[in-house]
């Protein structure tokens, strides 16, 4: 009978199943030991799902997931908690000073900033936040021309035109809709998306491209909260392809800006100030018979611009919503801000507020810094992968 079963393959199948079960059990045990060795006394799940870890909980209810991670880190007394996501041991840091110390040690053999558990697949391994050492330092120096007083004054004028147009539309809508509260989260997001596009790209982005940007960003924002299944039709694949299309469009904007700056045109937006310096460096290298400096290729610049635009949209929207909510809860502070603004500028004047006028509003600036600091302390955290 045994010979007949062996001939039919039943015993071989049974042996294979037993071997596979033992291998999976060993893998599960090794993974648990690996996780607990790194976790030590830190708060975090006592057991982790093989390979996936807590990724399902994060995607199913991201708000609750991050709330729990923040609470664990805060209550630990150490300012951090541990978890396991997609085969990676990760740390969630909730302490501002500890975050600064970690940033000083971001390197290949210590910490990698994740940004998102699947960020490298979405943004690419050459993304700005994944660079180390001299390469990261060189890129930061190359970006510096975007933040000179002259450049910042240009951005202020561009931002005001967009912001005033949106506020007028909000007021018109409130008149039509009648009395009652209106949610500003989506309008603020739309305003900040247009503001960042205008500040970064100015005349290089057509109306059609701007509309397409909104659609692509929606695909991206949906994809980063989906399971990392990179298959045709999946939300993750649509997000990844959206990033590729956006980066290609932005690379074209960088190419056009280079041409305008090489022709001696006046900078009108952030990318112009950036390309003005890059064109000079590229031309000097070419005249000396040397290759173009690093981080000056159109494709790379398109990727960097996407990083800036994504960060500008998310950070500006959340900061503005926090500021509105905080000021609404402190009417005395809001009254002083309004009074100070009224001293230097009036919307009926038909003029834009200059950089000099903005500098005069010291109380308003202090309030803005305080809101930003409070928001960072209450809400922001550092999410990174530990390699030690």
TrEMBL record:
<protein>
    <submittedName>
        <fullName>Uncharacterized protein</fullName>
    </submittedName>
</protein>
């Amino acid at each position: 009978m045994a010979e007949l079963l062996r001939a039919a393959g039943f015993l071989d199948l049974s042996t294979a199943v037993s071997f596979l079960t033992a291998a999976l059990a060993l893998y599960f045990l090794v993974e648990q030991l690996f996780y607990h060795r790194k976790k030590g006394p830190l708060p975090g799940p006592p057991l982790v799902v093989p390979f996936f870890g807590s990724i399902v909980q994060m995607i199913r209810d991201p708000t609750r997931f991050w709330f729990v991670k923040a609470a664990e880190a805060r209550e630990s007394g150490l300012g951090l908690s541990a978890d396991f996501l997609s085969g990676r041991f990760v740390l969630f840091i909730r302490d501002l000073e500890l975050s600064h110390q970690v940033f000083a040690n971001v390197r290949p053999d210590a910490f990698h900033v994740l940004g998102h558990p699947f960020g490298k697949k979405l943004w690419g391994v050459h993304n700005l936040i994944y660079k180390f050492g001299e390469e990261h330092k060189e890129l930061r120096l190359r970006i510096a021309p975007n933040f000179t007083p002259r450049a910042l004054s240009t951005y202020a004028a561009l931002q005001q035109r967009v912001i005033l147009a949106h506020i007028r539309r909000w007021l018109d809508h409130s008149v039509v809709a009648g009395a009652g509260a209106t949610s500003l989260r989506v309008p603020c997001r739309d305003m900040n998306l247009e503001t960042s596009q205008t500040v970064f790209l100015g005349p290089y982005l057509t109306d059609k491209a701007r509309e397409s940007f909104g659609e692509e960003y929606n695909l991206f924002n949906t994809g980063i909260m989906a399971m990392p299944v990179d298959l045709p039709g999946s939300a993750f694949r649509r997000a990844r392809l959206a990033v590729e299309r956006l980066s290609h469009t932005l690379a074209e904007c960088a190419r056009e800006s280079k041409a305008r700056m090489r022709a001696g045109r006046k900078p009108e937006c952030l990318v112009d100030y950036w390309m003005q310096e890059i064109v000079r460096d590229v031309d000097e290298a070419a005249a000396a018979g040397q290759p173009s400096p690093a981080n000056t290729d159109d494709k790379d610049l398109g990727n960097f611009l996407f990083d800036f635009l994504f960060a500008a949209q998310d950070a500006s929207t959340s900061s503005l919503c926090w500021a509105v909510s905080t000021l609404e809860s402190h009417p005395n502070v809001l009254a002083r801000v309004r009074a100070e603004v009224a001293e230097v500028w009036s919307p009926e004047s038909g003029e834009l507020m200059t950089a000099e006028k903005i500098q005069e509003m010291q109380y308003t600036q202090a309030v803005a810094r305080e809101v930003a600091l409070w928001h960072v302390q209450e809400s922001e955290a550092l999410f990174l992968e530990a390699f030690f």
